[in-house]
Amino acid sequence: MAAEKASDEAGYKVTYSKSGKDWAVLSGMKNGKIFYEPRLFGRDGIIRTVWIDYPPALKSKYDPLVGAIAGSLKGP
Question: What residues contact 17, with CB distance under 8 A and at least 6 apart?
Fold first, then answer.
């Protein structure tokens, strides 16, 4: 996460990050779109993740859905 937060990739900026024992989430802007990327680190060694991006004009529509989508990640 630290490397991604410090990235100098053009058009990419992490504005939010948080992590726990077996999960992490990054959010920000990439190429003019809002992105949200939750990650779940399974006991089986598999990282489950989903990448969600959408235009800022649709923020009010998509923000309420992001939590439900992120909550759908399951693993051992």
Answer: 1, 4, 5, 24, 25, 26, 27
| Dist. CA 76–CA 62, nearest whole Å | 28
Contact 25, 70 (CB under 8 A): yes
Its pTM stands at 0.83
Query: Burial, 17: exposed, middle or buried (Cβ in 10 Å; 0-12, 13-18, 19+)?
Result: middle
Evaluate if residue 44 carries a pLDDT over 80. Answer: yes
> Which one, of 40, 26, 42, 36, lies nearest residue 62 by Cα?
36
Q: What was the pLDDT predicted at 17? A: 94
